[in-house]
Amino acid sequence: MYPATGVPQQRKRGVGKLVAGVAALALLVGGGAGWGAGYLATQNSGGGSYNALNQPLPTQTGRPAPAGTVEAVAQNVSPSVVELRTSGNQQQSEGSGFVVSTDGYIVTNNHVVDMAANGGSIQASFPDGTKAPATIIGRDPTTDIAVVKVTGVNNLKPVELGNSDDLRVGQAVVAFGSPFELTGTVTAGIVSALHRPVRAGGGSGDLTTVMSAIQTDAAINPGNSGGPLTNLAGQVIGINSAIYSPPSSGGLGQSEATNAGIGFSIPINQAQRTAQEIIRTGKATQTYIGASVADTQSSGALIQKVDPGSPADQAGLKAGDVVVKVDDQAIDNADGLVAAIRTRAPNDKVTFTLNNNRTLQVTLGGQPVQVR
User: Fold this and answer.
1) Looking at the annotation, which residues are catalytic?
2) Strand pairing of 365-368 and 160-161?
3) Scanning 47, 64, 107, 176, which has its CA 20 to 30 A from the CA of 209?
4) How confident is the model over 135-144, as a mean pLDDT?
5) Among the CATH numbers 2.30.42.10, 1.10.3720.10, 3.40.50.1700, 3.40.50.10800, which is that of 285-368?
6) What is the helix (H) or strand (E) element at residue 112, kind and residue range?
């Protein structure tokens, strides 16, 4: 999986080029075309020709967009979306974020800002043209969440959050961000799948991100990372984070990730909990069970090792057990179990179903996330 963030400038290939497809419009000739021309010529009562170019343009009404439309969502949410330009380690990249408070807190992806964590810089650009430096409040590479803050910026408009647990496959969604530095971009699609285990490589030596993602076909490209995914009520229900891109033999090259109609967003319910903790303490807590897991030959997650005294040990999990379900969610592989655990909060009680139909109740633990 590729993060949907900006590609460092020294490695960009083709970024900034817009390739327009060319479509040929064939004009039919013969009897049909002649009939159409004759029809237009007789529309006017005076028998004269009609020319659309000579007609007055419709009056602009200035009416707000109808509620529940993509247009209305764009008008409502776009003022809260921020472009983030990050510099560090002699590299630069760009991504997105969204305002969550009037005093300047912005939620984004960890991989958007991680290169600025050790002496780098972040510049936030707002839709009205305002630019301001941003500082990292905290970040969590295990869930790919980060919070930054700007100061001295007025009239900030926070987003409204939705409930990602209420999402349904096929539901319409809208994605926001700055793909390829094209700020203020809005795309639309549907929820293609839910609880999709997605693994994204950690940046700058950070831990690997494993998320239980919202899959969408709304166009997400490099630069969209950290931008919001909303429902048609304009409520944020996800954070755009990663895309699937097949190897390319074209001009962009295999190292460049581009949209293939398969994008992934972090559910906002998980992101909200992590962001709140970061704002409150500057750090995040990782949910864990204290066991190492691996894929199986069929379906489920194999428990390889259980740490003594861990939540897994206290619940009675043993090496060799195969977890096939967490509560009502089917577990297909090791990443599926890790994602299901990280989606939940420390101290949550969950039911593990094993492949022998035995069930165990596990009280999830929490440990501080170590970042570099």
Assistant:
1) 111, 144, 225
2) unpaired
3) 176
4) 93
5) 2.30.42.10
6) helix 110-113
Say if pTM beats, i.e. exceeds, 0.85: no
Averaged pLDDT, 180-193:
95
Q: Which residues contact 232 (CB under 8 A, 6 or more apart)?
A: 68, 69, 70, 73, 172, 173, 174
Q: Which CATH architecture has domain 78-150?
A: Beta Barrel (2.40)
Chain segment 71-104, per-residue pLDDT in tens = 999 999 999 999 999 998 878 889 999 999 999 9
Q: Which CATH architecture has domain 160-281?
A: Beta Barrel (2.40)
**What Rg do the C-alpha atoms of the chain give, in angstroms?**
25
CB of 212 closer than 8 Å to CB of 335: no
Classify 362 as helix, strand or coil: strand
Q: Do 340 and 353 form a contact (C-beta atoms < 8 A)?
A: no
User: Where exactly are the structural domains of the chain?
Assistant: 78-150, 160-281, 285-368
User: Which amino acid, one-letter code, is at 42?
Assistant: T
